[in-house]
Amino acid sequence: MFNVKKVFFASNFTAAGVLSKLPERIKSGAEAKKLEGIGTKISEKIDEFIATGKLRKLDKIRNEPESNAINELTRVAGIGPAKARELVDAGYSSIQDLRDNPEGLSKAQKIGLKHFEDFELRISRNEISEVETLLKSEFAKIDVKLRGTICGSYRRGLASSGDIDVLLTHEDYQSGSEGKSHLKKVVHALEKIELITDTISLGDTKFMGVCKLKKHFRRLDIRLLPRDQYYCGVLYFTGSDMFNKNMRSHALDIGFTLNEYTIRPLDAGMVPMQPLPVSSEEDIFDYLSMEFKHPYERST
Ligand code: 8DG
Ligand code: CA
Ligand code: CA
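Output (structure tokens, whole complex):
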């Protein structure tokens, strides 16, 4: 089936939201029209796309010079469609224009611009595996009770990744307890050894920034999770996105709600109850009566 969802991101955010939450791709306009937020116009476009593989209206939009400018500007990490539109309206039309006049950009967008070429490169498994070794040895030096896992496409075994997604926990850090200085300690130590080069944002539980091991600058995210929520987090941030959607929808079918923090049974009125105890990824599959899937089997 064609990726109908993607086409609609450009033209209708509500409909795109509704369609993207479906566990399976819809097969006709009529089927889509039954959903809330999808009217005649969108359903006609779905039929046109399924029949012809394209949309006349979208082709027309794509051919406008402004669309090319918007597409180019959104290649910068941190610049989304709305910001790109604002920049184009202000007269920007290329990466070079941004480099010449970066005043209107946020700190994050300036970092995206500074490392524009590097951030478009894929990161090899080898390089991420070296980062992993370095992280493990740093964590051990900072505090032996720290634990980390590199998730995302790397954990799924792919040959290359778009960025590096690290999850961090500490043996004594439980949800509801204090312990939120762990992330800052780690980030400061990684700055000290010059692995982390830029910080886009740093809170108690989430770091977004840049690291450099070899030649290229890479996007690095680190999230701190309490021990009791760690494996739901590892499962979620390992993905893939599609795998997560299918697993969550299976969970709902059999009376559970699963997110990046917890798995909770639903009561008769579909209200989530207390989180279930989880001490491994396997536990989550068990609760859902699913056969365990190795991360390498989760890319679809
Ligand atoms: P990549 O970086 O190599 O391109 O792939 P990735 O590691 O699979 O994707 P990611 O964008 O870095 O996200 C990491 C995981 O987070 C992803 O595999 C699954 C999970 N995830 C969802 N939904 C979403 C979402 O809406 N946005 C993001 N960024 N991640 C999500 O399940
Ligand atoms: Ca990733
Ligand atoms: Ca990521």
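The pocket of 8-OXO-2'-deoxyguanosine-5'-triphosphate (ligand 1) is lined by residues 152-153, 161-163, 165, 236-237, 239-241, 244 (CB under 6 Å).
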